[in-house]
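User: For documentation purposes, I need each entry recorded in a consistent format: the amino acid sequence on its own, followed directly by the corresponding structure tokens. There are two entries in this batch. Please keep commentary to a minimum and don't merge the entries.

Assistant: Recorded as requested. Entry 1:
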Amino acid sequence: MKKVWISLFAVSIIIAGCSKDVAQQEEEPVHEDIEQVENEQEQQEEEPVENEEVVEKIKDDVASGESEQEKETSNKETNKSDEQKQPLTEDGAVQLLKEHLRVEYDETIHVLVDREEDGKYVLQVFEVIDDGQNSHTATLGWYTVDKNTGEIRSIM
């Protein structure tokens, strides 16, 4: 017990010797900079898209022939025609589709690569429905992502 008291006394002396007197402390701009950066990051972060909005986006993709992503992809292809392109990875295809559907930050929506066929990844977009006792998946859509071009098409 004596050793514990001596240890606590030594630690308190060290802490007291290392800390500044509150009256002598100057405001450190580092804390203000950190708070400013955090505020900027909070402003830049997108809010998660509601599930109903995701479903509507998927329905719109199915109804329209060419999606916004396909238009953007064709523009990017024109601009990058001189560059050597690396084929898209499965993770890259998942991220591209999440960005397209605006569900990057929505943890309730899942995007998985189901298979690869004809140089395209086939991806399933779904959510897990859990009622406490049972759970199941609810498919929101099926998409293909071209490995070489990044072109996204709804196949549902």
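Entry 2:
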Amino acid sequence: MSDATAEQEPPRESGGLVIGSMSGGAVAQGSDAEARDESRREARPAGTAGEVPAPPAVPPPAVPPPGAGGLVIGSMSGGAVAQGDRARAVDASVAVAGPDAERLLAAVRELRRDLLGEPDTGEADELERELAGVADEVRQTGRADRSRLARLRERLEVSSMAAAIGASAAAVSQAIAQLLG
């Protein structure tokens, strides 16, 4: 055994992790674990945040509790949990619903209409694909990937095409900024 190996501290047992129901979010367990939730979830109506769902008609099978230092989560529908030595949890999720989603979709529709009047270039084609992807994702799932929105916003800020189109590109960029915070 080398000196470097002899000096390393052995990993501690963490007791495990038990989750009853999980419909979104991120969970990590162990030394230096990191859980990061960057999802976009449909916003809940006012007053419903934190409500616990009704128990099932038939109780679930018994789940043994975790060992010492373990973690039990009854129901999780978003957020981030990390358990273990030096573990980190980051909840950077964004809800896309209601007026913000509608504002984004309206701005994207307007910009796509404006693009139709522009010369057919590779830049215009790429921008159209990004816009169509964002619109489809929001319509189908009520969510938009944070990295996709950030990439589109960056493209609009540096694009000569977006500068030529002007107001509609700025409206999309502003709607994205509203969602990303």
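Summary note for entry 2:
Residues 44-52 have pLDDT under 50 and may be disordered.
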